[in-house]
Amino acid sequence: MTAYWPWWAGAVGLAVLTIGYTLATDRSFGVSGAWERVLHWRREAELERREAEFTDERTLVAALGVATAEHFGTVPAVPVPPGPAAVPATDGRRSGAHPRPAPLVTQAVLLVSIFVGGLIAAVTSGRFHIRFDMGAGYRHLVTGNPVAMVALLFAGGVLVGFGTRLAGGCSSGHGLNGCGRLSPVSLVATATFFGTAVAVSFLLWKVI
Amino acid sequence: MRTRGGVLLANLLTGLALGFTVTSIGFGDYAELNRMFTFQDLRMFLSFFGAVVIIASVFALLRVRRGTGRLHAGVVPGAVLFGIGWAISGGCPAIPIIQVASGYLPAVVTIAGIVVGVRLCRWANGRHFFRIDRGSCEG
Asked: Per the UniProt record, which residue ranges are transmembrane (chain B) (predicted)?
């Protein structure tokens, strides 16, 4: 079993994938946002379909305006609403904050590929091992009772799911992307969830 | 890369890299996580905040637009709930996925909890059980 990565390798790895995604797609990735959309698949697919229709309509209006102007040799009478691709970069900056999230299917792919990436790392490092507990650390620090473990994992999961959506992001959306963009809301959220996790972890370690 | 296929490829590669990286750092290991949160071992802490510093520096250099999200009423309460959940389950939204991938089968229960929590938030927000402005419970 190989050792965990040193801190600098982890920092470079997390930074490269976050920067690469942002530059490649002009969007920010967030795992809790992907969960949110995938878990509301039907509703989100309907919204995507309407958005596509709306974009088609805007493209049609723009094309009719240009054709009319060419035919009569005038400027379009109706202001042409710019489509998403036609929005000019006003100050030369990358927007990096796309108004629409990534397509639904791509976010489902993100969640599945996290699993595959984790599996590859666990197998190649010799760390993959089927277990029916959460390891010695969880047993010593939280509980060794299987029923209590299941109850706490479920309660913790509900808090993570509810909390990240209430806060509008998680450790990837707020933590890596938002803090990387120096977004005030992400800096506050990250300081709060890290601070709370530190306090609860100290309680588990020293008190309970 | 801004096409649908390009975004799909970017998500695929980012997901693979994220799963591989967080597993290799040790975020799926509860003992390591508790040692990070109690400052017994700063390795994972420095990985996370080192990444933030690199990202912020590169974004500033490339003039990527700064975040403009508004601080709404759900941010602090939501982050507190998330912090408690992360400390007691060992999972942020990506971690239980890689825990299952590493063989920690009970993490399936954490995933089930996340599914319930995410759906509960949208349901509660839709029913106006709390008055949170746009930005909460939205992608």
From this structure: 42-62, 74-98, 104-121
Asked whether the beta carbons of B33 and B90 are under 8 A apart, the reply is yes
> Which pLDDT tens digit goes with each residue over A102-160?
888 999 999 999 999 999 999 999 999 999 999 999 999 899 899 999 999 999 999 99
Of A37, A117, A170, the CB nearest to B15: A117
**Residue ranges per structural domain of chain A:** 1-85+99-130, 132-208
Task: Decide: helix, strand or coil at residue A159.
Answer: helix
pTM listed for this prediction: 0.84
Q: Are A21 and B14 in contact (CB under 8 A)?
A: yes
Instruction: State ipTM.
Output: 0.92
3-class SS letters over B82-132: HHHHHHHHCCCCCHHHHHHHCCECCHHHHHHHHHHHHHHHHHHHHCCCCCC
What is the C-alpha to C-alpha distance for residues A87 and A26, in angstroms, rounded to an integer? 13
Banded pLDDT at A99 (limits 50, 70, 90): low
Looking at chain B from residue 28 to 47, which residues have their Cβ under 8 Å from any Cβ of chain A? 28-34, 37-39, 42-47
Nearest CA to A201 among B47, B85, B129, B120?
Answer: B85
CA geometry: angle B25, B64, B78, nearest 5 deg = 55
DSSP designation for B46: H
**What is the overall mean pLDDT for chain B?**
89
Q: Which of B15, B16, B93 is facing A160, going by the closest CB pair?
A: B93
